């Protein structure tokens, strides 16, 4: 059974206006309302997830505007080189479990990429192309609706992004830039960027085919404008004491890649993990490149690290550094 749906294009707007629009729309919808696809772009800003802490995540001070969205997920760079979309769907029209929302809601996005010849895959909440993340997503329940947001990433400015992130050392920042060049990609790295009208047509068709919706061009009603404007003051207030760092001692670069650094007095450890294994390790204690490589190749357990380190230093030191490495590394379950 097909459903009528609204396509609302708000063009290029300020960050707060964009985020307030989908939040206000979602909060204003009544049960059995038509689903909405909100389409638009926004000027550059850093966008935090709703549970993140401003002071813990970001460098201070920042010249780039910062906004905390009413959706989950981590720190993202958003600018006019992304085509953002938000699905605003009454809960009764959704798959039963929230874990299923991403597979359901992002399927038309995957179909769109494939129509352009890019064989993307869905990994949890992220879209991947050729082993790299090309898109993330966030979701929340607002009012009677589920809200699912993502974007078509035409260009990702790694250098700008890493300057915005709180980093314990410049070494950490440098590693982040290098790791992002492997963990992330964008549209222009694979083919020429299409005209917006061409992208919209393909995405529109993919949504209608995949979700069985029939779109009509729509706009915010007067009441929906008031609902949007009511949200704006909330978005303008950034509570620096709220939330926490999403990844303790570091940052998630994609679903498989984490960079962390922990300090213990003058001692420190920096670890890059990929797929739950060591990819790169550095210590403040001087070790040779060959010794560091042996640590990277070891199993990510304290016993395996101790077995390698005891060949490089006294037992007490080996136990200390093995524990500090394991306490630093983000090893997902």
UniProtKB/TrEMBL annotation:
Keyword Nucleus: no
InterPro entries, A to Z: aa-tRNA-synth_II/BPL/LPL (IPR045864), BPL_LPL_catalytic (IPR004143), Octanoyltrans_LipM/LipL (IPR050664)
Name of the protein in question: Lipoate-protein ligase A
Source domain of life: Bacteria
Annotated keywords: Ligase
Pfam families, per database record: LplA-B_cat
Database matches in PROSITE patterns: BPL_LPL_CATALYTIC (PS51733)
Keyword Cytoplasm: no
Ranges of residues in domain BPL/LPL catalytic: 31-215
GO MF: ligase activity
């Amino acid at each position: 059974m097909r459903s009528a749906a609204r396509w609302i294009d708000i063009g290029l707007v300020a960050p707060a206006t964009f985020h307030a629009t989908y939040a206000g729309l979602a909060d204003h919808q009544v049960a059995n309302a038509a689903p909405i696809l909100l389409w638009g772009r926004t000027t550059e800003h850093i966008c935090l997830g709703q549970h993140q802490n401003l002071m813990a995540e970001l460098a201070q001070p920042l010249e780039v505007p910062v906004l905390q969205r009413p959706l989950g997920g981590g720190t993202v760079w958003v600018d006019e080189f992304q085509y953002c979309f938000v699905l605003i769907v009454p809960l009764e029209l959704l798959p039963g479990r929230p874990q299923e929302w991403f597979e359901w809601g992002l399927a038309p996005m995957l179909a769109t990429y494939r129509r352009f010849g890019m064989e993307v895959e869905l990994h949890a909440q992220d879209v991947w192309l050729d082993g790299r993340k090309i898109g993330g997503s966030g979701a929340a329940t607002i009012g009677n609706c589920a809200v699912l947001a993502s974007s078509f990433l035409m260009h990702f400015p790694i250098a700008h992004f890493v300057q915005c992130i709180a980093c314990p050392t410049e070494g950490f920042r440098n590693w982040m830039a290098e790791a992002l060049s492997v963990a992330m990609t964008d549209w222009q790295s694979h083919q020429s960027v299409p005209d917006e009208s061409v992208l919209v047509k393909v995405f529109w068709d993919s949504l209608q085919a995949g979700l069985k919706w029939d779109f009509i061009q729509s706009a915010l009603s007067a009441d929906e404008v008031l609902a949007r404007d009511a949200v704006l003051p909330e978005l303008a207030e950034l509570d620096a004491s709220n939330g926490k760092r999403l990844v303790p001692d570091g940052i998630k670069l994609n679903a498989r890649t984490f960079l962390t650094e922990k300090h213990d007095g003058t001692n420190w450890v920096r670890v890059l993990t990929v797929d739950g294994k060591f990819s790169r390790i550095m210590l403040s204690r001087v070790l040779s490149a060959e010794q560091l490589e042996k640590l990277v190749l070891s199993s990510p357990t304290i016993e395996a690290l101790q077995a390698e380190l005891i060949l490089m230093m006294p037992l007490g030191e080996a136990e200390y550094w093995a524990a500090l490495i394991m306490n630093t590394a983000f090893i997902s379950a």
